[in-house]
Amino acid sequence: QLQASGGGLVQAGGSLRLSCAASGSIFSINDVAWYRQAPGKQRDVVAAITSEGSTNYADSVKGRFTISRDNAKNTVYLQMNSLKPEDTAVYYCNAKVVTTTYATFRYWGQGTQVTVSS
To answer: Using one digit for the tens of pLDDT, what is the confidence trace for 58-106?
Structure first.
């Protein structure tokens, strides 16, 4: 139901844009968050956006990452600028999804690898 994409290998200082797209019998996606998990570490929230568009960021990414949404496409984006080697991780999206039958589920995307070289 959730497809995360856009990861890759980039040099420090570079940029990537991640996408999290909901598919299937979707009426809307509500609150969405991006998480990341580096090897041997726990999964931590990076950024979040509500259905109304309010955003929150982890201190480590404030001023560098921007979360946004396109409700018409049921897609949420994470624009990542000024990337650092410590941003290297698998990035996951997590979304509260409302189906066309108005059932509500929370899904995880499959993860997309971001690697930042120094």
So the answer is: 999 999 999 999 999 999 999 999 999 999 999 999 999 999 999 999 9
Cα–Cα distance measured from residue 77 to residue 84, given in angstroms and rounded to the nearest whole number: 19
Contacts of 60 (CB under 8 A, 6+ apart): 86
**Residues contacting residue 79 through CB under 8 Å, at least 6 positions apart:** 15, 17, 65, 66, 67, 68
Interstrand relation of 75-80 and 65-70 (parallel, antiparallel or unpaired): antiparallel
- The single residue listed with the structure tokens 């201190």 is 59
pLDDT (tens digit per residue) in 27-49: 889 999 999 999 999 999 999 99
Residue 101: partners with Cβ closer than 8 Å, 6 or more residues away: 25
Distance CA 83, CA 93 (A): 19
Neighbouring residues of 115: CB distance < 8 A, sequence distance ≥ 6: 7, 8, 9, 10, 88
